[in-house]
Amino acid sequence: MNMTYIIIAIVTLLAGIVLGKIIFAKNTKQKIQDAEHEAQNIISTAETIKKEKIVEAKEKFVQLKAEFDKEVLDRNKKLGESENRYRQKEISINQKDASFEKQIKENEIIKENLSRQLDVVAQKRNQLEKHQEEHIKRLEKISGLTAEEAKSQLIESLKQEVQTQALQLQQEVIEEARQKANKEARKIIIQSIQRTAAEQTIENTVTIFNLESDEIKGQIIGREGRNIRTIEAATGVDLIVDDTPEAIVLSSFDPLRREIARLSLQRLVADGRIHPARIEEVVEKTRKQLEEQVMEIGERTVIELGIHGLHKELIRIVGKMRFRSSYGQNLLMHSREVANLCATMSAELGLSPKLAKRAGLLHDIGKVPDEETELSHALLGAKLAEKYGENPAVINAIGAHHDEMEMQYIISPIVQSCDAISGARPGARREIMQQYLKRIKDLETLAMNYNGVEKAYAIQAGRELRVIVEAEKVSDGDSDKLSFEIAQKIQNEMTYPGQIKVTVIREKRAVNLAR
Q1: Are 446 and 490 in contact (CB under 8 A)?
Q2: Spatial CB neighbours of 298, under 8 Å, sequence gap ≥ 6
Q3: Contact 264, 286 (CB under 8 A)
Q4: For strand 325-326 and strand 329-330, is the pairing parallel, antiparallel, or unpaired?
C-alpha cells in the first residue's frame, strides 16, 4: 500500500516537472517572438532615420556648395578690383616718372643758368674787393691810421658807450625793482606798525630807592658797614649811599637782582630790624617770591598774547625777560612788541598769525640763560626751543633771526624784520656815542677811498651820505656809476639801521675876475 502511494507521488512529481518544462518552453518561445518583433521595429526605425539623415546631408551639401560658390565669386570680384587699382597706380607712377624726367631736365637748365650767374657775381665781388682795398688805402692815407688801429679805437669807444648804457640800464632796473619792492614792503610794514601799539621800553641800569628820612641810611649801612656789605653780598647789587637826600641808588646790570634788592630793602625798612641775619632771611624769601612772580608774569603774558601749549620752562623764561634789558630796551616788552608785529605782518601776507606770534615772543629767550654758555643767544634760544618740543618753524625762526642759521621757513625773515623794526623804532634803544661817531666816520672814509672824490659828508644821523667829486676827474656818467658802487659797498661791508641814501654831487664852476 505504501509502495503504491510512493509510485503515485513519483509519477505526479514527474508529471509536474514535465508540465513546468512545457510551460517554460511556451513562455520562452513567446519571448523570442516578442524580441523578433521588437527587432523588426528597431530596424524599421533605423532605416527611417537613415533616410532622414541622408536627406539632411544632401541639403547641407547643397547649402555649403552655394556658400562656397558665393565666396569664390566675392574673392574673384575683390581680386579684379585690386588688379584695377594696381593698374591705375602703375599708370600714375609712369606719369610721375615722366614728370620727374622733365623736371630734371629743367633743373639742369636752371643749374647751368645759376652757374653762369655765380661766375658773374664772383667777378663783381673781386672788382668790389679791389675797390674796397683802394678805398681803405685812401682812408688810411687821409686819417694817418691803419685799418686795425681804426678798428681798435672804434671798438674801444663802442665798448665804453655800451658799458655806460648797460650801467644806466642796470641802475634803472634795480631802482625800479627796489621802488616796487620797497613800496609793497613799506605798505605791509607801515600797516603792521600802525596796528601795533608800542610802549616806551627804555630802562636804566640803576634804581632809585626812596627813603622817608636820611636817618635810615645809617641803619642800612650798619656798624662799620656790616649791613650794606651783607646786602650787596646777598643780592649782587651795588648800593650807592651819597649826599642825595632821602634816596639810595641801587646799581646793577641785572634788573632781576635790582628788583630783589629793592623789595628786600623795602621790607627791611618797613620792619625796622636791619642786621645781617635778618637781611639774609629777607633776601632769600624775596628771591623765592620773585620766582613765583616771574612765573605769573610769564603765564599772564602768554594768556594776553593768546599763545597756548607753551612748556612751563619756556613760560618761566618769558617771565624772566621782564627783568632783562638789551641796549636799554626791556626784553619782555621788546618780545611782546615783536610778537604783535609778526602776527600782524603774517596776517597781511596771508600766513599763520599764531605761529608767527609764538616765534616772535620766543626769539630772544637765549638772552636769559640759567647758565653761562659760549653759544650766541640766537643759537641757544633755538636749542632751548628744540629741547622743550617747539615747532620746527619756530626753532628755525629763533636761530636764524641774526643769520646764524639758514632760513628754512617763511616766518623766519618775518621775525627778523619785526625784530629790526622794534629795535630801530625811535626811543627803543640807546646807542653809544662812540659807536655812532665811528659809524659816521667809517661812512665818510669809505667814500673818500674812491678816485676823484673831493669831500664826503654823512648827514641826517648817518642816513644820507653826500659825496662831492672833482668835475675834471669824474664825468656825469661816472657819477652814476660811483653812486651805485658806493651804495653797494656800504650794503656789503657795513651794519646800520634802516637805509642810507648816497648822493654824488658834481659841479663845474668857471670863475674869472673883471678888473
Answers
A1: yes
A2: 315, 316, 317, 318, 319, 320
A3: yes
A4: antiparallel
Helices and strands per DSSP (H, E), number in the chain: 14, 8
What is the C-alpha separation between 232 and 320, in angstroms, rounded?
21
| Terminal Cα distance for the chain, rounded | 214
Contact 500, 459 (CB under 8 A): no
Higher pLDDT, 444 or 513: 444
pLDDT tens for each residue of 33-88: 777 788 788 888 888 888 888 888 888 888 888 888 888 888 888 888 888 888 88
Q: How far apart are CA 37 and CA 39, in angstroms?
A: 5
pLDDT of amino acid 497: 65
- For residue 354, count CB atoms less than 10 angstroms from its CB and return exposed for 0-12, middle for 13-18, buried for 19 or more: middle
- Amino acid making up residue 130: K
CA distance 427 to 328: 10
CB-CB neighbours of 221 under 10 Å: 18
**How remote is the C-alpha of 104 from its chain's centroid?**
66
Angle between helix axes 353-362 and 392-400 (nearest 10 degrees) is 50
The DSSP bridge partners found for residue 251 are 206, 238
Strand partners for 459: 464
| CA distance linking residue 299 with residue 301, whole number of Å | 5
- Residues 6 or more apart in contact with residue 245 via CB below 8 angstroms: 214
CB 313 within 8 A of CB 388: yes
pLDDT band at 328 (very low <50, low <70, confident <90, very high): low
Q: Which residue has the higher pLDDT, 36 or 430?
A: 36
CA-nearest of 317, 295, 297, 299 to 370 is 317
Strands 464-469 and 501-506 turn out to be parallel
Nearest Cα to 475, choosing from 506, 437, 450, 429?
506
Identify the three-state secondary structure at position 510: coil
Q: Is 468 helix (H, G, I), strand (E, B) or coil?
A: strand
Classify 144 as helix, strand or coil: coil
What angle is formed at CA 403 by the lines to CA 399 and CA 405, rounded to 5 degrees? 45
Distance CA 482, CA 468 (A): 11
Judged by DSSP in three states, 306 sits in coil
Q: Do 71 and 63 contact (CB within 8 A), yes or no?
A: no
Helix, strand and coil percent figures for the chain, each rounded to 5: 70, 5, 20
Q: Nearest 5°: CA angle at 318, between 313 and 322?
A: 140
CB 275 within 8 A of CB 228: no
For 8, the grid coordinates are 503515485
For residues 320 and 342, what is the distance between their CA atoms, to the nearest angstrom?
22
State whether residue 103 is helix, strand or coil. helix
Closest C-alpha among 413, 19, 454, 101 to residue 27:
19
With contact defined as beta carbons under 8 Å apart, do 389 and 371 qualify? no
The Cβ of residue 139 has, within 10 Å, a number of other Cβ atoms equal to 13
